[in-house]
C-alpha cells in the first residue's frame, strides 16, 4: 500500500509552502535543488518543518486543502506544537539538514 504525505516546508524567513507527495524524500530534494520552479524556488522554501502520513490519497489531499486554507499563524501553531524550534525534519526521512541550518 502506498503512503502519502502532506507536508510543510519553510524558508529561513519562515515563508511556508504546503504540499502533497507519495515520495517525501524525493520531493524535499526537488525543493532543495530548485527542480520545482515557482514559489518554492523563488522563496527558497526548502526545510521540512512538518509532515503527516496517510494511506488514503483523498484524505491526504483534503488535509492539504484544509491546511492551505488556514492562516499563517494557525499553520505556525501546528508546526510549533510538534517542532517548536522549526528544525529541519529531513533527517527523520534519511536526508541531511538543509545547508544553511534551521528554519528560523
What does this structure look like?
With 104 residues, this protein is an alpha+beta fold. It has a single domain, classed as GIY-YIG endonuclease, CATH 3.40.1440.10. Helices cover 37% and strands 20% of the residues. The chain has four helices and three strands, in the order ββααβαα. It has helices at 24-33, 39-42, 57-69, 72-82, and strands at residues 4-10, 16-21, 47-54. β1 and β2 form a beta hairpin. It is globular and about 35 Å long. It starts with a strand and ends in a 22-residue tail after the last helix. The model has no long low-confidence stretch (mean pLDDT 92).
What value does the average pLDDT take?
92
- Helical residue percent? 25-40%
Structural class: alpha+beta
Within the CATH hierarchy, at the fold level, what is the topology?
Answer: GIY-YIG endonuclease
The gross shape turns out to be globular
Percentage of β-strand residues = 15-25%
Distance between the termini: 36 Å
User: Roughly how many Å is the radius of gyration?
Assistant: 13 Å
**Unreliable segments of 5+ consecutive residues:** none
**Total count of domains:** 1
The number of helical runs is 4
CATH architecture: 3-Layer(aba) Sandwich
Largest sheet: 3 strands, antiparallel
Tell me the total number of β-strands. 3
CATH H level: which superfamily? GIY-YIG endonuclease
CATH class: Alpha Beta
- Series of H and E elements: EEHHEHH
Protein name: Putative endonuclease
GO molecular function, one term: endonuclease activity
Family: Belongs to the UPF0213 family.
Domain GIY-YIG: 2-77
Amino acid at each position: 500500500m502506498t503512503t502519502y504525505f502532506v507536508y510543510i516546508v519553510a524558508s529561513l524567513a519562515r515563508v511556508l509552502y504546503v504540499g502533497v507527495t507519495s515520495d517525501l524524500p524525493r520531493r524535499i530534494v526537488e525543493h532543495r535543488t530548485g527542480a520545482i520552479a515557482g514559489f518554492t524556488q523563488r522563496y527558497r522554501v526548502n526545510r521540512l518543518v512538518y509532515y503527516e502520513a496517510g494511506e488514503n490519497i483523498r484524505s491526504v489531499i483534503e488535509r492539504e486543502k484544509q491546511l492551505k486554507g488556514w492562516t499563517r499563524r494557525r499553520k505556525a501553531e501546528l508546526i510549533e506544537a510538534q517542532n517548536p524550534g522549526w528544525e529541519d525534519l529531513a533527517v527523520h526521512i534519511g536526508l541531511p539538514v538543509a545547508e544553511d541550518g534551521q528554519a528560523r
